[in-house]
Each structure stands twice: as structure tokens, then as C-alpha cells.
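Please review this pair:
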Amino acid sequence: MTSSAEESANARDTIRAAGVALLSTLDRTTLPESLDDRLDAFCEIAFAVLAPTGVCWLGFYRVTDDGEAMTLAACRDRPACSPIGLHGVCGQSLRSGRTRIVPDVLELGDAYVACDPRDRSEIVVPLLPPGEPPRSDHPATLVLDLDSTEVGRFSDDDDEVLREALQRAGLSPVIRGPALLGPWTESG
């Protein structure tokens, strides 16, 4: 019989190994030139590697031309909400230019855009497509969003691996400070 401390250590080891596998797979893969095809390919690769670690969905959202909402650009494994407003975790990450890590989305109340009621934790990383400058209204134009049905699934380690994976995929993560953890406050 294993203790909960052993189970936690095993889970962390599995997650770390998946991060290494993701980076290694991206290093061995030539991604398509077009942005939409690149985002699709990244989703396929990342989901295949990260799903066994408790990631149940991942995708990219893109800010609309008017800067008032976001639309789904690519995703894996099931349909998602689109368009979404900027009040949710994805919009907060886009507007702040900082990764958002939410250990328990139920703590967010109305600030959470619930596409799947089973989701319990989320991480969102802001980024820019290759060669695209930030817009005047948002420091990022895309976000990478990952969900899990497990409370507390994501950490700063995930942020670090995802940023490195995005760079290896030819995308530019936006870094305006450390990840924001927990419920959103307007002061960040």
C-alpha cells in the first residue's frame, strides 16, 4: 500500500517525465509553417504526451480583431466554448501578459468560463505568433490553455515546461512577470 506522499511524488515524477518527453518530441518534429497548422500540430503532440498526466483538454485561443473576445484557434480533445469573453482565465492571461495558474476553478465563481463542468484546474500561458508584435490593447494575441479534472494539477514547473515547448515550436511566450496563482484580482 502506498502513502499519499508516495503517490504525490510519483505523480510529480510522471509530470516531469512528460515535460521532458514533450520537449524531446518537439525537438524531433518539423512543425508546419502556417500558424494554424502549427497550432494544430502542437495540440496533437502536447495532448498525446500530457493526457496521461491528467490534462483533459488543451487548446489555443486567439484575440478577435476588435480585441473584445477570443475565439478558438486549435484544440484537442473535445469541443470547447468559442467565442469567449476576456473576463475568464484566458482573457486575464491575455490582458496581463502573465501565466495564470488556477488550482481550483470553483473558487473563481463568475470569473470562470466553464466549458466542461468536470474541469477543476487550469493553466493559461500568453503568447505571440512568430514575428508578431504585441497589440496596443493586449501584450499577447494568443493563449495556450490546459485543463484538468484534478484539483491542483498545474504548477510553476508546468509553466516553465510549456513556455519552453512553445519556444521550441517557434512561438513566443509573453513574460510580464511570474505566474499569477489562484483567484484573479484586478491588481494582478
Summary: The first strand starts at residue 55 and ends at 63. The mean pLDDT is 88. Residues 4-28 form the longest helix (25 residues). The domain at 4-181 is CATH 3.30.450.40 (Beta-Lactamase).
